[in-house]
Design brief:
single chain; alpha/beta; Rossmann fold; 4 domains; 7-stranded parallel beta sheet; 26 helices; 47% helix; globular
Amino acid sequence: MNVDSPSKQNIATAVLAFERVVSRTAGFRPRAGQHDMALRVAETLAAGDLGEAKSPVKSIAVVQAGTGVGKSAAYASTAIAMALERKTRVLISTATVALQEQLMGKDLPALAASMDKPFAFALAKGRGRYVCKLKLDRLAGSGSDEDELFENDFPAIALSTASQEAIEERRVRLYDHMATLLAGGKWDGDRDTLAEAPDASDWSGVAAERHSCTARHCPRYKDCSYYNARTKLAEANVIVANHDLVLASLGMKTLPDLDNCLVIFDEGHHLPAVALDQFSNSMDLSNLRWLERLPKTMVEVSGKLHLMLAEDVNTLCSQLKTAISQMARMAMELVRQHVNTQEGVLRFANGVLPDALHEPVAQIQAQANAVFKSLEALGAEIKAVAKDDPTQAHTCAQLYAKLGPLSPRLGAIVATSNLLLEHGAQPLAKWLEVKTDGTYMTVSAHACPMVPGDLLRQFLWSQVRAAVVTSASLTSCGSFDYFLNEAGLSHNASVSTLEVSSPFDYALQGSLTVVQTRAEPKDAAAYTSELVQVLLEDLQHVKAGALVLFTSRAQLRSAADALTADLIQKVQIQGTSSRTRLLATHIARVESGFPSIIFGLQSFGEGLDLPGKLCETVFIAKLPFAPPSEPVDEARAEWLRTVGRDPFNELVVPATGIKLLQWTGRAIRTEDDHAQVICYDKRLLVTAYGKRMLAGLPPYRLVQRKL
């Protein structure tokens, strides 16, 4: 990597900061891999051009750091020191709340205490995590004379009158309590700092929203919880966020400009999935009460300020409702014909919308676009009135807030109908879904791009100048190729890769036993029957903590139902209590000298840290292939086959290889652990793709066991 003299000095300074920090850490053990990672982080972040540049140099490192490397220490101290030298900021993005809490509560405070130069850090959250004081004033009954304009924003619920009244009484008490805490300076307006988390439906009534905020024109702007938090972010050298917020905030100025700061994506293997989620669109075809309220609201709001609406919104909304209702009936019939039941999913082959749906969707698109433009124009006029006449700021803010909840719903219809009618060389995933919840049926239409790499390349990497993407599981089957392709970083000259091996001696500390069942894993019934029998026999030998990972709820239930009386006392089953309580019970049992076994699904295969006796054995019931039922995955596989490519080897095998790497990673968590992994799926040994996955796992001592 070619670097100039100032960059070399910055690299040396950043690496020296890392070395000082780790040497001052209690129980420090020199780790060559951690130093290699810190050096790569420094070199990468020094090389990228920030800010104004005619032809900026970009620099991105993809670093897989095995368990025990200490990656957060390697990147955080180095990146922060580099940012201070370059007079810029660091944005650290994570995928999970657990890692955010670790960084904010442990890692960054420790770094602040041990680094030579001071720095400030802050946690970035979405606007919806903060209370809107203007909404709270109204709902708590403490500051609005416009209540006649506000109807109940909450969805209809099939409850008795007494139950409805009880809900309203609870909300009034909650909102009054919030207002009292705010007035007394005992709460900062952040939902997460309330002693007791409010119900989601209660919070939605007072949550801050971009679409209902007049920002500087709001009378509560100066003491707004969200904008106060934004001010703290502006003063921080280090900002911790999550992947969802980073992608959702692109181009919105809520986070530092990505072309003018240093960026770390930890838990980077989640980026492709987050990108697909962020750029997917859906519209509800069944709950249209809000659409009935929309024209009335727009007319009343415009009338309050003596503004003229450019469109006949009553007629447009009536036509839009008719078109959506027509499509809902057609969707229910199409789904029923496809799955032969009242609910299910119908994906459109090759992303082609059926001819029968073209006209309803085109009508929805045209009418929704017209209403949306009128709604946006009205919002712009309200802001203009507030700017020109500050005496009306309070009224304008209240009226704008009334329009707020309607805008994203209408926007979803516009975006989804646009995508449903779009068809290019690379098709979109498009589908209908009908679900029942008690006596209610919901019908929805969905459209989504299906190649995350294209999205990330276009919207994220086009802006980023200097970044590190890191995780313990970025390689699959021994290669970075799958992740680079999924993340939009393949064939990019600005990208370098580094695999930093774990400091653990896997062959000495652990083993991987592959049990060769007689039944074939593809024969689900026979395989599950044999698996359960062998698993229960193996569980009898558990002396301390163990984790059993299943690939489906049906498989987990079969094993749980077969537990013997003595095993029932030892097994904690995911879903029977909260994750926190389940883990607390497990830890307490093991620390008291009793065996404890966790039965879990996919979410327990990643991010679970149970060192030492807390997890001496990981049992893997079956290779963690994802069920081929997700519409986006189905659509992508279909498209690959049409262009002569093999989706199984190109997508399914490497994706499963990453999951298997994560699952086996639950076994050995420290340099002092001794643990075993037992996998009951013989395909790991006897198939070519299984051997590919095996080659990508840590070098455990391999044991074969035939039944």
